[in-house]
Amino acid sequence: MNNDLVGLLASLIPTPRCHFLMTGYTPLTVERQVNMIRKTTVLDVMRRLLQTKNVMVSSYARTKEASQAKYISILNIIQGEVDPTQVHESLQRIRERKLVNFID
């Protein structure tokens, strides 16, 4: 599907003027927490990726008005054996719970 960075970006960025990617990473763990491994769901991983404390750049989304921030698109790369229906259902739950705002 997306074999290179250009192909990946083309599907995420609909207009040339909106070209800044914001990176998030989860789980961020310290060495002493490595022994405390727990099973996480796709929804849990996606929800944590969208938390402002896991965003790796300073932006409007990290301010106190984070509820006003809007997303154009989201790409989550989830490793491991994941059923695509879980990803779809998780995204639907995120939209229903209004955890993030997408542009209209």
Please tag this protein with its features.
104 residues, 60s Ribosomal Protein L30, Chain: A, 3 helices, Gamma_tubulin, nucleotide-binding, cytoskeleton, Tubulin/FtsZ_2-layer-sand-dom, GTP-binding
Can you describe this structure?
With 104 residues, this protein is mainly alpha-helical. The chain has one domain: 2-Layer Sandwich (60s Ribosomal Protein L30, Chain: A). Helices cover 29% and strands 0% of the residues. Helix 2 packs across helix 3. The longest helix is centred in the C-terminal third of the chain and has 14 residues. It is globular and about 40 Å long. The two termini are 27 Å apart. The model has no long low-confidence stretch (mean pLDDT 70).
Overall tally of structural domains: 1
Major sheet description: none
Multimer state: single chain
Instruction: Supply the CATH class.
Output: Alpha Beta
In round numbers, the mean pLDDT is 70
> SS-based structural class?
mainly alpha
Q: How much β-strand is present in the residues? A: under 5%
Write the CATH architecture name: 2-Layer Sandwich
- CATH H-level name... which superfamily? Tubulin/FtsZ, C-terminal domain
Considering DSSP H and I runs of 4 or more, what fraction of the residues is helical? 25-40%
User: Which residues sit in consecutive blocks of at least 5 with pLDDT less than 50?
Assistant: none
- What is the overall shape? globular
